[in-house]
Amino acid sequence: MCFDTFRRPGWVAGLSTLGTALFSLAGSAARAESPYARDALTSAYEQASRTILSQPGVAKKGYCFVFGAGRGRLAYELARQSDLRIIGAVEDVAALAAARKALDEAGLYGDRIALQPSSLSKLRYRDYAAALVVSDSILAEGACRGSAAEMFRMVRPDGGIALIGQPAGCPKRLRRDELEGWLKAGGVAYTITESDPDGLWARIDRGPLPGSGEWTHMWADLGNTACSGDERTTDSFKVLWFGEPGPSIMIDRHWEPVSPLYKDGRFIVPGFDRIVCCDAYNGARLWDLSVPGAARIAMMRDAGWLALDDEYLYVATKGDCLKVGVKTGEVAESYRTPSGGLDWGYVAIDGDLLFGSEQRPQASYLASNIGSGAELKALGLSKLGAYAEGNQLGRGDDRFLITSKALFCRDRNTGKELWRYADESVIANPTICVGGGGVCFFESREPSVVADEDGRVKMPQFAKGASEHLVKLDKTTGKVLWRRQAEAPCRHVLHLSHARGVLVASGCTTIKGNYWYHLRAFRDEDGSPMWQRDVDSTFADKDKDHGKQDKHPVIVGDRVVLKQGSFRLEDGAPLGLAFQTSNCADCAASMKHIFTRNSGVARMISLNKGGAGVALCSAIRPGCYISIIPAGGVIMLPAFSAGCTCAYTIQTTIAWLPQ
User: Fold this and answer.
1) Pair 195, 242 in one domain
2) What would you report as the CA-atom Rg of the chain, rounded to the nearest whole angstrom?
3) At the N or C end, where does the chain have fewer CB atoms within 10 A?
4) In this structure, what is the dihedral angle of CA atoms 333, 334, 336, 342, given to the nearest 10 degrees?
5) Cβ atoms within 10 A of the Cβ of 449, count?
6) How far apart are CA 411 and CA 245, in angstroms?
């Protein structure tokens, strides 16, 4: 699906894998006057478009599907009154030719509107093609043709709407009993409204797919579980859509950017100082926002800088957090860090609470600094090639953790500061998580770390002299609920996750030339130890490769899963599962599968079949950190292979639909 110009919808069945161009390379300028002669239906089409677009929740951008597009008159009015891109299916070949001619004269065909021949009983399109579905033929003819089930199949989940009907005064009146009978025969749930002058309309709202999950923070959720909770993934799948945004706007994959996000049908794709919002079910670009200085990298050593809820996307950039409307992409507000002069680090949303952390200016690695070598200079390294830069920035033994000086909480509706926690300590950004009524993290009270001036420290220094402490704050007041000295036997990185009343610390250490992976479980109620596991590498040869130090576990229900093994959350009992994966890419999970990179390609690994896996696509390479997310009942992968010089022929954003 091409987002910028709406010229290559990749959801056309039978054509999608070819990316067949349905839209001209350059649409002519739209003219003001209608190409249609005024007649008895002119005012009906104008009124119908106004009625449709005025309904609550109806999309004004993205894709609209016209089920029975007739001569293109409803498509024309909707395009004239909105920013929708419109696809229409037409059964009558003569009507199709006339419609194309008229819309071309209007300067809309091939740019805003495309019509195609198709049976209305068996449409030729992929599922979930549009956020808005309407019908011209039902409006004009007053008769319900084709399959209501096929019409409904085009409505995208999690917010998609179909409005089928006609305004009052149409020459051929639509009977309510016929409309209701047609919808019932298709198994479609609906609500009917009938008034003057709006007329008779059936509204069909499509909710979330049953069992679908979300991915609202870097590691999926507030608990950093890296599991979306999606229950719809299966071992069988098909391409749902593909296309833009392509690699040109992305951060080089070697630099490990933040993961994409998903909620309520919206797919948030982070780029190079840029954020793109797409419809997760058909790829329509909804908005594109430039955010200079926001593109943080080496994210396995940092905290996520994006958080998504049903109304806003929160974006940490320098000393601010931007509150971006998810429907418009416009910045509604901007919040500063409480003390000023410090950068906004961690960002998370929990109900009405907006959490943040304060860190040293430019403590986080920034993609925008790579060209000047500022990041390499901070590490005391010489200027290297892009691939080597990526390795040095985040990978390798004894690299730096990003730390914060304070944590705070605001009311996300008013911006009012509710509390701020600052002590004689620094907080490890990758360990901040929310759960069990609190905010949890590891802090270091080592004097040399507290005195650090750039916000980047190494794990041996962070844990020097048993100075590391596990802390829980009350999330609404900031009160310290408990603080406990807790061993973090990790040399390279330290992560913390929360699930089901258990805190799981994880990391990696080199022992006699081999890599060991450590899990430490603590009770959420008081921080007391529960169990620990130290796991030697199962795949010794692969673990000599880059990126092995930074593995983040996934917590799926009652299981803690590493590639080297899986363990029961409540007591650490081994569960036997182990699987192969590339070291420099990390894992995301649904309730049934692990998604990662192996042998260079996107791969899905079954949690219930002993680690058996299948390639999603052998010609597409995922990025070097979390890039595949299973959420909303869809498997999504942005073009995170940007910067890759390996022999992978396709660089595209793509979504698969489990079968």
Assistant:
1) no
2) 27
3) C
4) 160
5) 22
6) 34
* Amino acid residing at 464: K
Here the CATH number for the domain that contains residue 475 is 2.130.10.10
User: Residue 137: helix, strand or coil by DSSP?
Assistant: helix
Which of 477, 510, 512 shows the shortest CA–CA distance to 491?
A: 510
How do residues 463-483 score in pLDDT, each as one tens digit? 998 899 999 999 999 999 999
Helix (H, G, I), strand (E, B) or coil at 221: coil
Asked if 277 and 249 touch (Cβ cutoff 8 Å), the reply is no
CATH number of the domain where residue 51 is located: 3.40.50.150
Of 101-110, 259-268, 532-541, 589-598, which gets the smallest average pLDDT? 532-541
In this prediction, residue 196 has a pLDDT band, given cuts at 50, 70 and 90, of confident
CB 298 within 8 A of CB 319: no
Q: Could you tell me how many residues make up the chain?
A: 659
Smallest Cα–Cα separation from 188: which of 204, 174, 201, 173? 204
Q: What is the residue range of 523's domain? A: 237-658
Largest CA distance in the chain: 86
Instruction: Summarize pLDDT for 356-409 with one digit per residue, the tens.
Output: 999 999 899 998 887 655 555 554 443 344 434 444 454 566 678 999 999 999
Contact status, residue 475 vs residue 397, Cβ threshold 8 Å: no
Do 439 and 559 lie in one domain? The reply is yes
Q: What is the DSSP letter of 201?
A: E
Closest CA to 497 of 553, 444, 564, 551: 553
Residue 546 tokens read as 């880059």
Q: Where are the beta strands (DSSP E) in 244-330?
A: 261-263, 266-271, 274-279, 285-290, 306-308, 312-317, 320-325
CA pseudo-torsion sign 365, 371, 372, 376: positive
Amino acid (1-letter code) at residue 299? M
User: Within 10 Å of residue 331's Cβ, how many Cβ atoms?
Assistant: 16
Question: What's the rounded Cα separation, in Å, for the pair 193 and 199?
Answer: 8
Residues 262 and 174 in one domain: no
The full DSSP string for 512-572 is TTEEEEEEEEEETTT--EEEEEEEE-SSTTGGGSTTGGG---EEETTEEEETTEEEETTT-
Q: At residue 2, does pLDDT exceed 80? A: no
**Assign residue 604 a region: left if phi > 0, alpha if psi is -120 to 50, beta otherwise?**
beta
Task: Read off the tokens for 275.
Answer: 């954020």
